Amino acid sequence: MEQTIVIGVHQFIGFHLTNELLEKGKTVIGIDDSTDIENNEMDLYIGRNANYSFLTLDQLKEVKVSEQTTVFIDWYDIQINRDNCRISPEELRNVLQLWGEDKAPIVMVLCPMVQESEQTFIEWKRFKSEKIIFLPTVYGPWQPETMAFAAAISDVDTNELLRTCKNDYRLDAIFIDDVLTALPEIQKQEHQTIILESVSENQWAACAEELNKPELIKTLTSVENRVYNEKAFYHKVINSVTPKQGIALQIEHFEKMKRLSISE
Hints:
By secondary structure, the chain is α/β, with parallel strands linked by helices. It folds into 2 domains: 1-135, NAD(P)-binding Rossmann-like Domain (Rossmann fold); 140-172 and 198-264, no CATH class. The chain contains 12 helices and 10 strands. Strand 2 (28-31), helix 2 (39-46) and strand 3 form a beta-alpha-beta unit. Helix 10 (203-211) packs across helix 12. The longest helix is centred in the C-terminal third of the chain and has 21 residues, at 243-263. The radius of gyration is 18 Å and the shape is globular. The model has no long low-confidence stretch (mean pLDDT 86).
């Protein structure tokens, strides 16, 4: 039976991906060991769905997989939000080693565009069907405050805001819905290392302008050159959601969550 496993279901991208798959009628197993207090809110949004079940990473070892199984690993958020997520590369490696190559699942690893992530996964790449997908800054509702846009919206102090910039790839940004739209096409491609890039230029800077935080714009002067990997396939993503629209949606979600926390 066709099934999808999302490792990092309580993370930003993993949560949105799970909702998208469930809306399409897919059977989804969500995996996480996160301690973040927003988990309860995320579970409420997923709701009671007959096609959804939640397991810990340790329980995943008992799940039978096949070539019809697709596994998404949201390493993008697990790494960026590592203080609130206990999933480690070693634990993931131990689980994947239980799955033999003869009936290996399709594995899609979503990584932030940093060298450490590439080394982490390529060093123990196990399956011929595995794809490593590098993402620039992804933004939208539920973005964690360990990233610059969410931190700016919550109005953290300047020092903390500048620290969060280190988690952002500041040469590009893609709204979460546009990332999800691109994934089905990426699944069909033969390339195993893929980098997502916006069709529109200067998307991170445009988002920073919408937030009216001059200190964010100033960080662009210290940004290193654009990542280039001659072995990777560059997949162009159409920015159907503009920075103005995307930041407005992220602010709207933040205000909604703040009202809910006050009412409790």
